[in-house]
Amino acid sequence: MKAILTVQNITSDFVTTFWTPMFVGIFLAIVTYALWPRNKATFDEAARMPLREE
């Protein structure tokens, strides 16, 4: 049986082969940025913002 090319198949293949690895890479970059030791002071300060009385 010959495979039928449809817009749905082409779109699904495009999303699977291109966007999924791109979003995984973006996610890993965000996690790496958030957990990088140099950024700890910035995130600690941001975590204390709601508790400050001004």
Report on the architecture of this protein.
InterPro entries: Cbb3-typ_cyt_oxidase_comp. Pfam families: FixQ (PF05545). The chain crosses the membrane at residues 18-36. It comes from Bradyrhizobium sediminis. The protein is 70% helix and 0% strand. The longest helix has 29 residues, at 7-35. The protein is mainly alpha-helical.
Biggest sheet statistics:
none
Q: Counting H and I runs of at least 4 residues, what is the number of helices?
A: 2
The amount of beta strand, in percent, is under 5%
> How much is the radius of gyration in Å?
21 Å
Mean pLDDT metric: 87
Number of strands: 0
Q: Separation of termini?
A: 72 Å
The gross shape turns out to be elongated
Structural class: mainly alpha
Helical content band: over 70%
Low-confidence stretches: none
Sequence of secondary-structure elements: HH
Blueprint (SSEs and pairs):
Elements: H1 7-35, H2 40-48
Summarize the entry for a quick read.
With 54 residues, the protein is an all-alpha fold. The chain is elongated, with a radius of gyration of 21 Å. It has two helices and no strands.
Defining key terms:
54 residues; single chain; elongated; mainly alpha; transmembrane helix; 2 helices
